[in-house]
Amino acid sequence: MKTIRIGGGQGFWGDSPDAAINQVKDGNLNYLACDYLAELTLSIMQRQKLKNPNAGYARDFISLMSEIAKEAKEKDITVISNAGGMNVLACVNALKDVIKKQGIKNYRIGYVLGDDIHHKVEGLMLDGEEFRSIDTDETMHPIVKDIVNVNAYYGYEAIEACLKLDVDVIITGRATDSALFLAPLAHEFGYKNTDWDKLAQGIMVGHMLECGGQASGGNYDYGWQDVENMENLGFPIAEITEDKFFITKTETSGGLITEQSLKEQILYEVHDPANYITPDVVVDISEVTLKEVGKDRVEVANIKGKPRPDTLKLSVGYHAGYKVVTHLAFAWPDAVKKAQKAAEIIFNKMEKKNLVYQEKQIDYLGLNSLHLDVSNTSEEMIENQNEVVLRIALRTQSIDEAKKIIPEIAPLQLNGPPGSSFFGGRSRPTEVIALWPTFIHRKYVELTQHVEEVN
Questions:
Q1: Domains and CATH numbers, the chain
Q2: Residue 258, burial from CB neighbour count under 10 angstroms (0-12, 13-18, 19+)
């Protein structure tokens, strides 16, 4: 029976490369898929590209490939990644340099272009497209002049088409995380784009692997103290046949694969388990089953699929002003009350400076910064708090407004409540890139496949 093994090598831009290296070495893989993109990552990459035309992609991927490209080629492991971000061609060129320096011959780099549709937006809006926000239902007209990037989340078909070109690696832009994993399965097993149950299973293979160590003992709520050898955390590997699907990991890595660890991951970012919408299929995991069939080996079954939507999600990043974040630490006794008084002093001063801001956030790190309104803020808790850090964040339209608060923080070490300390140097205003989530009909997104060969 044909069996395909896919490793989930990265969970995000900045993730550790260690697990991917281990998977290539000991994972007996056919494919390694590495996800680098998140909602606002593209906007950050676009800003990098505007400053430097050779930037705008996940350089971590090039560092990883310098470690694994030769061995992956020798073992016939195809690497698939959306590391191209906003500059797929620059990423391809950087990888070509690595391959040439290492003397790897007959190396074929496939890549997909077409998800960046910034140049089409104004024309489409003139034709009547409104690009209403998923969050607010407002039309996109007010932010058009402030747009930084516009990228469509696309599915597996363009990546599968690239695989048919006999490539060693595929670099994409904003392919969906799970499509990186579905594409090789569709290629290997011949899925049609209407095989809804098979496509749904392939999507969930990707969903289980796309967050790296989160499925294998990292960020593990159920039993984090039971995770062994976390400093050598292994990432999950999917083993797929025509009709079955298992999650496992290498024997030489730490972490764990259990029913509980996978339950946490399978529900991650899924708003409606019966209707998990992707560009390729609407997935129904409302009756999914997970069964431990061995050490670090779980079978996943009973995944169903429904027809895909006509639209694709569109990630629009736009300039939304500036932010400044400041910190002051206070010690017991009365740490929280001192911090509250300091915040009061600062905003009394800001009122005199006629500060104009769009958003304000005051947190007390150590008390309520993570749990917010459900934090335990009882009198006993406040009285016994050993220390607390006052964090004030402002968003303003102009950089000059953001600068008004900066010189008022450090002086409170001597001019405010006792027991405070200032750290990290003076804050600096930074640009805010906000997200405008919306949809676009898939007919407007034209994807193309290409190959560069290094001999």
A1: 4-115+154-309 (no CATH), 316-436 (3.30.70)
A2: buried
Q: CB–CB of 296/309 below 8 Å?
A: no
CA torsion angle 41 43 46 47 (round to 10) = -110
Mutual orientation of helices 18-26 and 59-74 as an angle, nearest 10°?
10
pTM over 0.90: yes
pLDDT-based confidence at residue 317 (cuts at 50, 70, 90): very high
Q: Which tens digit of pLDDT belongs to each residue from 41-52?
A: 988 898 899 899
The count of other CB atoms within 10 Å of the CB of residue 140 is 20
User: Based on the number of CB atoms within 10 Å of its own CB, is 266 exposed (0-12), middle (13-18) or buried (19 or more)?
Assistant: buried
Q: Report how far residue 420's alpha carbon sits from residue 180's, in angstroms, rounded to the nearest whole number.
A: 49
Pairing mode, strands 304-306 and 430-441:
unpaired
3-state secondary structure of 137: coil
Asked if residue 417 has a cis previous peptide bond (ω within 30° of 0), the answer is no
